[in-house]
Amino acid sequence: MKFYSALLLAILVILGGCSRQEELNELLILTGIGVDLGENDTVKVTFQAVNPQAQAGGEAGGGSASQAQSYTFESEGEDMIEAVFKARNFLSRKLFFAHISSLLISEEFARERGIKEISDFVERHYDIRDNYLLFITKDETASTILKTFTPLDNSSTKNIENLTKVRGGTLGIKNGTKLEDFIRARYGEDRDPVVMGVEKVDKQASSTKTESLNDIEGNKGALRLTGLALFDKDYLVNWLSYKDSNALIMITKKLDDVISYTVKCPDDQGTIGFLLKEIEIKAEPKIVNEQLNYSVQLKGNINLQGLSCNLKLSTEQGVNELQTIINEDIETDLRTALTNAIASQLDYFGIKNQLSRNQPDEWEKVKDDWSNLYENMSINTDVNIYLESPGSRVNNNEE
Amino acid sequence: MRRKRSKQASPPYHTDDSLVISKDVEQNINQIKQSLGDPFDLISKIYSFNHTAFALCYIDGLIRTEDIELNVIPPLMNWFKENDSRNHSIKDFQQHIQIPKNMKVTTDYSELLAALLRGNIILLVQKGTEGYLISDQYWQTRAIEEPSSQTMVRGPREGFVETLSINSTLIRRRISNPKLRFKSFIVGKVTQTSVIVTYIEGLVNEEALKIACQRINDCKAREVFETGMLEEMIEDKGYTPFPTLIDTERPDVVSSALVEGKLAIMMEGTPFALIGPATLNSYFQTAEDYYNRFDLSTFLRLIRLIAFWIAFALPASFVALTTFHQELIPTDLLISLAAQREGLPFPALVEALIMETVFEILREAGLRMPRPIGPAVSIVGAIVIGDAAVSAGLVSPAIVIVVSLTAISSFANPYYSIAGSVRMLRFILMIFAASAGIFGVFIFTMIICIHLVSLKSLGQPYMAPFAPFSLKKQKDTLLRFPLWWSKRKNRRNGEILK
Prior knowledge:
The complex is a heterodimer.
Chain A: H1 2-16, E1 27-37, E2 43-50, H2 52-55, E3 70-77, H3 80-90, E4 94-96, E5 102-106, H4 107-112, H5 116-124, E6 133-137, H6 142-146, H7 156-163, H8 179-188, E7 194-200, E8 223-232, E9 235-239, H9 242-251, E10 258-264, E11 271-288, E12 291-307, H10 316-344, H11 351-358, H12 360-366, H13 370-375, E13 378-389
Parallel strand pairs in A: 1-4, 1-5, 5-6, 6-7, 12-13
Antiparallel strand pairs in A: 1-2, 2-3, 7-8, 8-9, 10-11, 11-12
Chain B: H1 2-7, H2 25-36, E1 42-48, E2 53-59, H3 65-82, H4 90-96, E3 102-106, H5 109-117, E4 120-125, E5 131-135, H6 164-174, E6 180-187, E7 193-200, H7 206-217, H8 227-234, E8 246-248, H9 251-259, E9 263-267, E10 273-276, H10 288-291, H11 294-323, H12 331-341, H13 348-368, H14 374-391, H15 397-411, H16 416-454, E11 456-457, E12 460-461, H17 487-497
Antiparallel strand pairs in B: 1-2, 2-4, 3-5, 4-5, 6-7, 7-9, 8-10, 9-10, 11-12
Helix pairs in contact in B: 6-9, 11-15, 11-16, 13-14, 13-15, 13-16
């Protein structure tokens, strides 16, 4: 009896098995999804899928090197869900969403339809994770970006994913913006979300064929990160400049360890370029006498990278002068960013949320009058940076 | 023990109990010849005197012939010449005859016969119903060589041989302690094989010793030729794929086990000794662990554990990951694996099973084939497994890597027996993995874990000291603490062996 029950169990295990089994060559491994506005108010979804035969490292697989490393497939539907369903009609392999690295939404779509329906679909889908990057494609359709052959990486999604990982870029954002960040900002913290943007460097050039990779001019297929896209709830309203994006990233503490920064010398004699690092920032909204005050304190060290002003760094006076110039410039940048935010009437710095946490009692009193309060917000900035190293030389050549 | 056995209902291959030693020497010799079927190697000679006579009888090849000529016959001749009378006793022999050998007296004919077959010289005297047994076992044996199944870089090069008396000497030389005990048994109704259980009195686990002795006594086997056969007979009841006694051909391993309070079982005719009670943990320890520095030994033990796990679960994990959990594989790796899978005819499980089977065939062939063919098999094997199968598009290169890594890992275990268990379990695990993915792998691993904690070796828990857990004994489990740290052992030794 014991033997037969054990036998039955073994047979059950073996018979019941392999039901959800999928071999790797039955999967269409997607690396990116693009969402565009189609004709007649439809949604056009572009899937970027890996072509494993062309991407194989080593000699295996039997694919020829001339094959495209990725393929894109487009599918249209009334909404995103329908578009994805329809894609299954003409794809011979199962769509495999788990390895998506980025979700691209065209500027047009984000402005007109909002990204609510997308976020619902991708959040609900059991295969798709939340930790992929979200991008708005500036001036382009998402499918154009997905169809671009990029010179250094296997696919354009891989390319933009790597772009967010390069340290010391002008944007200086750490880990990029992900869909989960968007959803957290939108629904969790009640502030207006920002999303990274991406655009083609050379908008005229077409690089949808592998032959374009034979061209030495890499710029043709290159992609670049833009300033952040600013959202009012689910709709795109504006783009931030690099400086404003930088200030936002610094104040909301999403900063990479090191960012490169340039300021102008007084009297436009030249520029000062430096790496800003070990940044400590303290930004606090406070209600004083029924007035909202936002104070930003920034401390940090800099490594000088370039100097074309007349400053004598070999003297203490010169160093102090340099630090003062940089302090004032950063202060101005922060101020401008905050003033722009106030002008846009959007709270993307999350001041509302921070205030309600720090001073819950006061917040209860003033929350009905928020827009007025925000409009008249006073800004205090205090930047204090320290020249850690002038680089490998002290004075510039002219001194 | 033997007496008891001989009183049982005699099968045809037993000596007739009705036979006794008679007073006539010649009749006795004839009776022995008849009992043994007058073999060509039975040498017997009767020396007659005026009033008395004595006979010597032995089997050629089991004793040292020079001994007889030099040490046995001359003193006997002298003694009988001088004392040509009826009075003689074993005491007289022992006191007056300078035979530098053990001498025993018996009146039991079957014992006499058994002793003859075990390499004793039988001395029979006219008008006496006793037989004298002069112990002089000596036979051709293999020289002591380095053990081939358990090699090491540092440590003694001696290994056991097929002769029990040499093996026991090898242990005596390592433990010169009066408390070292050798307990003899005879096992096998037909083969009558000598088996000894050795232990150190005071240190040994009494319960395990009792169980071992009892099971050897109760062993009803007709024949035993190797300790593996004995192991199967005396193991705890119930099926297990795991070995529950450690086999070794290294005297230093046995000695250190004895000092740890274990016992060893050795047998005539095989260089492999059994050590018990065994724990799963002991299969990951080598004698060399104690000869090397403790930090290196700890590292090596962890490596062995990792290798064990790879040998057990790597092919199954590969199958599970690539067919059920593709989202767990890093994207770039997944793409490269997917590229290898393009156009392959078989599912991943079948691929893995084919390659594992091919490897097992090669391994078996490598063991069994005549030595001169060796290189041919390895060349063909390397080409078939490594290259041709991939180039022909039968299997993916990844599975070749997985199978070879698994194969190499299974050789990293110091004990061949447990590597064999893992070899079998690996196939079952692969089927579980192909049925239910990592979930299946965990189900089977859990079944194995439950089985392991319920397992006992000579009545002692197999998973000790993890289950039941003992913090003190963790000093010498996965980690090996420095020897100067292990005060417990020294103190215990000191108390008992003072």
